[in-house]
Design goal:
By secondary structure, the protein is mainly alpha-helical. 63% of the residues lie in helices and 5% in strands. Strands 1-2 form a two-stranded antiparallel ribbon. A hairpin with a 3-residue loop joins strand 1 (130-133) and strand 2. The model has no long low-confidence stretch (mean pLDDT 90).
């Protein structure tokens, strides 16, 4: 009987440690997304209003479309990862007609709010659950959120070149 009680206590202790570690991972993820939102806003603020339509080459997206693509993907990835219904159809923002600085900024920042709110609603245990991203890539919810973070980082980073081509200065690196 004593061994069963000790074993039960050990299992409970291990579960508590794993749950606390996963909760810490969620809190870190939220903090990273809040930092990314602030950093992205600095990029949007740095680009002169008249340069949101800038395309370095005819084959490339405009600056506005880069950031609207980023926002569309934030909604799509986060919806799959968190089970929250996206308020935006896939590609809907980039296909829109209003590419003004104020509208793009509002739409992009709203996509970060959607990601952050979805993560905050998740339980730590959900991070290890499997999901299908875009109907074909099976991964954990945590991996889907990491892919989303990687995607927005990639497209925000491309914005550096656009801002320089517009004659403006991009924001300084924001790792912390």
């Amino acid at each position: 009987m004593k061994i069963i009680k000790q074993s039960s206590l050990l299992v409970l202790l291990m579960f508590s440690i794993v749950t606390a570690k996963a909760q810490t991972a969620l809190e870190k993820t939220v903090a990273d997304w809040e930092r990314a939102k602030t950093y992205t806003k600095e990029y949007l603020d740095a680009m002169p209003e008249g340069s949101f339509s800038l395309k370095p080459t005819p084959q490339m997206r405009s600056f506005a479309d880069q950031f609207l693509h980023l926002a569309d993907a934030n909604y799509a990835f986060a919806s799959a990862a968190t089970d929250e219904k996206s308020p935006v159809a896939m590609g809907g923002l980039e296909k829109g007609s209003d590419k003004s600085k104020s509208t793009v900024t509002k739409d992009v920042l709203a996509s970060y709010d959607f990601v952050i709110a979805g993560i905050k609603k998740m339980s730590a245990e959900k991070l290890s659950e499997k999901v299908k991203l875009f109907g074909k890539f099976e991964m954990t919810r945590e991996d889907a959120l990491n892919k989303c973070f990687e995607h927005q980082t990639h497209h925000r980073g491309q914005g550096t070149v656009y801002i320089r081509l517009a004659g403006a200065t991009p924001p300084a690196e924001k790792l912390f």
